[in-house]
Amino acid sequence: MPLTDGHGAHSRQFEPNPEPNAGGFLAQFGASDESSEGFSPTPRGYQPGRTKYVVVIGTVMSGLGKGIFSSSLAKLLKDKGLSVAPIKMEGYLNIDSGTLNPYRHGEVFVLEDGLETDMDLGTYERVLNQNLSRRNFVTAGQIYTEILERERRGGYLGRDVQMIPHVTGAVKMRLRQLAMTGNDGKPCDVVFVEVGGTAGDYENGFYIEALRELAFEEGPENVCFVALTYILEPTILGEQKSKAAQLGIKRLMEAGVQPQLIACRAKNPVTEKVMQKIAMFSNVPMRRIFSMHDRASIYSIPDAMREAGLDREILSILKLHERVNTVQEDRERVVWSAFTARMAAPRAHKVRIGVLGKYASLRDAYASIDKAIEHCATALGADIEVEWLDTSDVDTLARAKELVARFDGVIVPGGFGMRGVEGKIRCVQAARLERVPFLGICLGFQVAVIEYARNVLGWADAHSTEFDPASTHPVISELPEQKKLEGIMGGTMRLGAQDVQIERGTLAHMLFGAKDLVRERFRHRYEVEPKDVTALVAGGLVFSGRHPKHPIMQVLELPVAAHPYFIGAQFHPELTSRPLAPQPMFMGLVAAAIARREPEFARTEAGRRWVRAANAAGTGAAVTA
Ligand code: GLN
After folding, report:
1. Are the C-beta atoms of residues 496 and 113 closer than 8 Å to each other?
2. CB 120 within 8 A of CB 228
3. Is the pLDDT of residue 166 over 50?
4. What is the helix, strand, coil percentage profile of the chain, to 5?
């Protein structure tokens, strides 16, 4: 049936491949032929079968650790020398995660390119040890915006714009574009698709439909569906029940998706009997059903998956055996095993770290801080007890001192809004006076500047214009580019990776391994007022990291004589910490916390590397010791 002119206009927008996909599965039903009912847009030059897709869909309930599951599986394949690119598909209508409340949705994770995303992207970056970008995160809001804007430009003239083929087409287009560019601009071997929510949700239905179409178009050897489900074990029965899992998987099958592999989340190892039932009801052979029960550490999951043969099954389903590099795999396994062994080993040191934030009751709100501390704990062999506290009721310095004294180190994390800010200022003052190791992050950095201005420079009403626009000493004020943006809240902060020039001879320089330039990730609207920098520096505060060109202060610290470890960053150091490469400012904090309890630690190799005391003699070169 000939299609309208409108369809032609639509296809031009998608830039379909002008050449038929020679011999490909897509060609069988005319996917590259815009006059065919089977038309499906593909990026120019797309080769079906070059890139394989693994799609992970949750059933029964959310919060099962889909991101951890997908990233661990992706890591296994990456370790085999395959290039992987994950993509998280969110069903909500926000364009990004920037305007979401961390209390409801977990932390906002910022990528190098400035996109504010779901915290799962942090999991992918950490587990894969790979930077991601806006190509790896899609929301319903992005898809609909793209389509509606195109409609207004006349991109579909003559056509009614429909969920199928237009919305599903846009989803497939995003996936195929990622397949062609990967994370490094080159076609990748496997795209890992994680669909947010669970099968049966209204809001992710169009993703599941798009993926069903994708699987049909790409062919059975090129797309593997994994259903992640949950096995209930009611205490009242004392045994595992598979019915909820069966119903959940059935939901997926009703949408036309037959999973090839089923991963069963559960508290305890899933019994043979339960797996048999699931196999029977879902047409999946027993060898492709896996028990993914709770484990002490998420980092042991890749090994557990490998032992269970999950990676092998994926390779068979997708016919990927030929692309495997076993030498690389062996090498990566040794590295990872050493890390997991270090994680499991008895810890020689014990410290307590206090995180003085706003969302004290929900750790997901500071997920990356939690992880960064864990990375350092493993690297330094420390058993770290982390306590999350709300500072709203810290109303006197005495109380702040009491609170801070309970810890070997304190972190004041990033944040927005006035609640708890005065308490934080008092806690920073207490940490400074009591010489308790301190790390201030973003708002924590700004609070340290306010505290210094008030209590050392004597500017009693010093504040941030975010909290007190009438202050006569607004030592923290809006960035010039932000002043123009009044009222536009989404994606408008100073976001993403920026260069930080580190001053030689400072604590920061030592921590960053004597590098003069580092790149870290930012997310802020306010900055140190450039006019006040001279006075703050004259008063003894050191700005050891600055923007290379603009007067934006990015790292602050106190000199050796004044404090064993007092440092703050306008950026978010937690976002770049990785299991095998812990972030230096966190390493310094944990090392200083250990040294506070065990002064002899400063003389150990790790101590010399990370504890400021080693530099007290002014050598400034202890970094390579
Ligand atoms: N509210 C502060 C600002 O916008 C700090 C932001 C943050 O901590 N991420 O600059």
Report:
1. yes
2. no
3. yes
4. 40, 20, 40
